[in-house]
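Minimal example, chain plus coenzyme A.
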Amino acid sequence: MTRQPMKQSDDLMMARPVRDSQSEMAEIVLPNDANPLGALLGGRLMHWIDLAGAMAAHRHSRNYVVTAAIDHLDFWVPVHIGDLVILRSSVNRVFHTSMEVGVKIWVENYLLDSCQHVSSAYLTFVAIDGAGRHLKVPAIIPETDEQRRRYEDAGRRREIRRDELDRRRNKLS
Ligand SMILES: CC(C)(COP(=O)(O)OP(=O)(O)OC[C@H]1O[C@@H](n2cnc3c(N)ncnc32)[C@H](O)[C@@H]1OP(=O)(O)O)[C@@H](O)C(=O)NCCC(=O)NCCS
């Protein structure tokens, strides 16, 4: 049976600009976040990425959300104990009940005065109510060239994700 998204009030459904969803999170890497060599655990960074992404999704949808998918991740540079990790997120595009959020991760080292790009992640969140029913998400308004580029790219990534999901489902059946 196909589940229909719940209807919401007109006010909640008003389109919102990308800037309303923009979020930033910062973490200092502590020994408990690292492996025996003092490097940040990939799983810990993934947890922070999920949280930073959820912040943007919550701000845009003004509802509960669940993570439906995280696209593949590359970690470009190592992060060490004492480094400052900065995660910036915003909603790239809204579909119906789901939205793509982009998270860009930076590492700052205040002793070396350096700032490097660690990773970029794309996450899909689905808006739900307290009973777990899917909710339609308000439209997003990209205002800058960069936001418009991300919006277009998110449409292409959705097609790729759908094809991949179909492929995996067919493999399982
Ligand atoms: C994600 C989830 C809500 C999808 O529900 P569903 O009933 O199987 O999915 P539907 O086919 O109705 O799709 C709902 C939306 O999710 C999107 N979606 C579902 N699976 C997806 C995936 N793997 N990747 C990207 N988008 C996905 C669909 O495209 C659809 O988007 P749209 O409404 O904007 O077009 C459901 O599988 C779920 O609750 N999973 C667990 C989520 C969770 O607990 N996450 C935390 C990690 S454990």
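Residues 145-172 form the longest helix (28 residues). The domain at 16-172 is CATH 3.10.129.10 (Thiol Ester Dehydrase; Chain A).
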